[in-house]
Amino acid sequence: MRENKPYDQFVKQLLDPDEKSKGFIEGIRWRGDVNASQVTEMQAAQNVGQVILGLNLKCASCHDSFISDWKLEEAYAFANIFADTTLEVSRCETPIGKKASTKILWEELGEIDSTASRDKKLEQLAEYLVQPANGRMYRTIVNRIWKQMMGRGLVEPADEMDNLPWSQDLLDWMATDFEDNGYDLKNLIYKIAISKAYQQPSIGVEDPQYLTDDDFVFEGVVRRRLTAEQFADGVSQNIHPLFEMEALKYNPNELAVSEESSMPFARASLVANNDFLKALGRPNREVVSTSRDSQASLLQALELTNGETLNEALKDGAMKWKEKYNDGDIIVHETYRQLLGRDPHQNEFNVAMEVLGEDPEPAAIQDLFWAVLLLPEFQLIY
Description:
It is built from 18 helices and four strands. The chain is mostly helical. The chain has three domains: 7-130, no CATH class; 135-212, no CATH class; 228-381, no CATH class. The strands form two sheets. A two-stranded antiparallel ribbon has the order 1-2. The protein has a two-stranded antiparallel ribbon with strand order 3-4. Strand 1 and strand 2 (94-99) form a beta hairpin.
């Protein structure tokens, strides 16, 4: 992100990795015996298929897929690219007495040398997949960015790019333009952001299932909830840090844009996963997760109303605000300005002042924080 690395280079460094980028295709080495569909080579095939190609190979890793045309032997042939030795094909955990071939899922992209070393096979795979002829890869990433910004992909689900888009012409144009502009992700985001489509009024959807229906009609950006990290950072920045700096899992100094950059609080994206973030929808990293459910859950409601993490941050923040502002009138206005980006309406101000008074106690300030944070206006992306 700092260097705005072109997407084709980014993918090549994941598929033909050095020490820093090898984790993506190394997968998880589970303790003890695992079934054939969970060996690291098959994990690599599944993850590359899902993330980079918008393809679900999980079914085809065990047997011929019931949900697509992909076959067991095709999945094994792709997984064999990531193997040091030739894999033996197993159907539903039972070896069928056949060695896997070595092929890309779309053979017209190029031929993998089955006799080559693993490093050489990965080099070939990286070169073949990023070539412009592989429009599948570039349609997949532009669809992901579109979904991230719009709330619904041109193709849904975003991991199943065999499905028809609601606008084939738009998907094709975006993918072609993305290639023509050097696989520049920031440029792609910019073009979506300045489009009339993005700038239309947002829409609410009563039934989330509508977003995956074949009869979906685009009307505007779909309103959705803040992610766990966005919500946490909003609280940390405006009220009080939710996490101590000691909770950081990654060194912020290595991620800073410049030496002058500073991190005033522990950013949630750099904090090791915890109960608070998981309750708000942050997935674990044991399986690839390319999207999140935006719907509220009972666990999230319980965490936001009774959880210690948020309660302690609001409590500490209330004491800090009491020392900084003191006057109830100022606290009400600053709460609305910082959390909602506007001044309170007169009726909102009146209710808040009834609770706070001219010289509010920290507990009353804490209650005001909590009430505003739970408003849809704070929690939804409009």
